[in-house]
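Example 3.2
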Amino acid sequence: MATSWRSSLEVYDLARGTVRVVFRTPRLIEAPNWHPSGGFLVNGEGRLWHLPEGAGALQPIDTGPLTRCNNDHGFLPDGRIIFSCHAADQGSGIYVLERDGPRLILSDRPSWWHAARGDCIAYACARGGDRVVRIAEIDLRTGQERVLTPGRAHHDGPDYSACGDFLWFNSDATGHAQIWRMRRDGSEAVQVFADDRVNWFPHPSPCGAHVLYLSYPPGTEGHPRDLPVTLCLMTPEGKNRRQILDLFGGQGSINVPCWAPDGSAFAFMRYART
């Protein structure tokens, strides 16, 4: 029997080990962030949406002429929304939503925002006319971009450690996507562990105690949607790795930072089997 919903926004409580359904909709929505004013920020149908706490409906966020927003979005430390969006026939660009509308902050494309720390943002990008995806960081005060991962491997999904000294990311440098960590200058890059599963989107908790990541079945190519996947936790040292939740999801489940500000819970998307 078909379900009445396509997308289910849910919250996992670490202390209780329980899952709470926040919102379900027949629409396809993705990538929940914890919203500073309460509720969650998601994307769907090329737009950004706010789901206020306790609300029964999504509220559209005005992004002006930008109507091809993808699932790489979140917040700067001052609370402004930062997001990635395609424009015309160009690749994905990174924008900040100002009072008078969206402002392009990075002219080089394609670029996909993933995390913010102070005046810096970390993102995935392709440069120099090739299709190799690498990790980069830019200081918004100076506009200085630093591409941090050389070589031909695919590097993606960067997020800052709680202390701010490291970037976590996934890379297929050793064959298939695994979880890595490096210093913010690109040095001391290490694969944190190795297994046969395809692992994406590491997100360190704000409290510094955990790293959440998405794990696909062996042999998965890229990070597709609508597959049986597993959400996993480990310590920042790569110890005590454990599978905490099996679900139908993948692309859109935890693409961007999804932890509650105090690190007590995280949000994710589950999808119906259609």
